[in-house]
Amino acid sequence: MKNLNVFKSNNQDISILDQNREYIKKRIVFNKFKDYAFWTIGLFSTLIGFVLLFTLIIDLFLDGYLRLNCRFLTSFPSRFPENAGILSALIGTILVMVVTAIVSIPLGVTAGIYLEEYSRENWLTNIIEINIINLAGVPSIIYGLLALSLFVYFFKFKESILTGGLTLSLLILPLIVTTTRKAIRAIPNSIREASYSLGATKWQTVKDHIIPYSLGGIFTGVIIGLSRAIGETAPLITIGGLTFIAFLPSSPISSSFPFISFKWLLDPFTVLPIQIFNWVSRPQDEFHVNAAAAAVVLLIITLFINSLAIYIRYKFRKKIRW
Fold it and tell me: Across-strand partners of 253?
C-alpha cells in the first residue's frame, strides 16, 4: 500500500513538472511575441517620421524647384513673383541667428554649469530648476509678447535685428541650460573625485575635466536649440519683423576707426519663415511656388545644422575614454 502511494505521488509530481514545463514554454513564446511586436511597432513609428519628412521635402522640392536658382537667392522680394527672391530674408536670418548664438550660448552654458556644479540644493535652486523646465514648454508667442514689452517698448531697441536675436535667445535659453546640465550630469563622479584627490580646485576640475568631457552634449543642445530658433515665426511677427524689405542691413565694417560698426543691430529685418508666411498668404499661385522654394532653402539649412550636431556629438564621444 505504501509503495502504491509513493507511485501515485511520483506520477503527480511528474504531471506537475510537465504542466510547469508547458507553462514555461508558453511564457517564453508569449514573451518572444511581445519582443517582436514591440520591435515592429518601434520600426513602424520610426519610419513614420522618416517617411513624413521625406514626403515633405519631395513635395516642396517638386513645387518649388523651378525657382531654385542663383537669381532667387540673390534677389530682393518683389510684387512680381517671377522677380522675387529671398536675399534680404536670408541675410536677416543669418544676422538674427548670429545675435541669438552670441547671447544664448554663454548665458545658457554658464547657467547650466553653475546649477549642476556650484549651486547648493535648497528651495531657491528647486524653484529655479522647476521654472527653467516649465519655460522650455512655454509657447513661442508668449516670448514674443514678453520681448515686445521688454525690448521694443522698455529698452527702445525698436523692431530691429537686436530685438529679434534677443527674443530667440530667450526662447532657446531653457533648452540650452537643460541640455548642458544633462551633459554634465552624465560625467561619472569618479572623474571629479580623482581631480579633487590631486588637489585641484572646483574651477580647475570644471575647466580641465567637466567642460571638455561634456562638450559633445553641450554642442548638441546648442545646435538643436539654434535649429529650432531658425524656424520660429510667431515671436518675430509679434515684435514687428517686416514682411517686405528691399534692402540689406548696414555693413558691419566701417571705413573709419575702429573699422567695426554695430549700426546693423538696430536695422529692421525679415527672416525666411516670415517671408514664406507672406508668400503663402497671397492668392497668386506663383507666390506659392516661391514659398515652396524658400521652404526648401530653410529645410536644407535646418538639416545641415542638425547633421552638424550629430557629427560633433559623434566626434566628441569617440574621444572620450572613461
Answer: 260
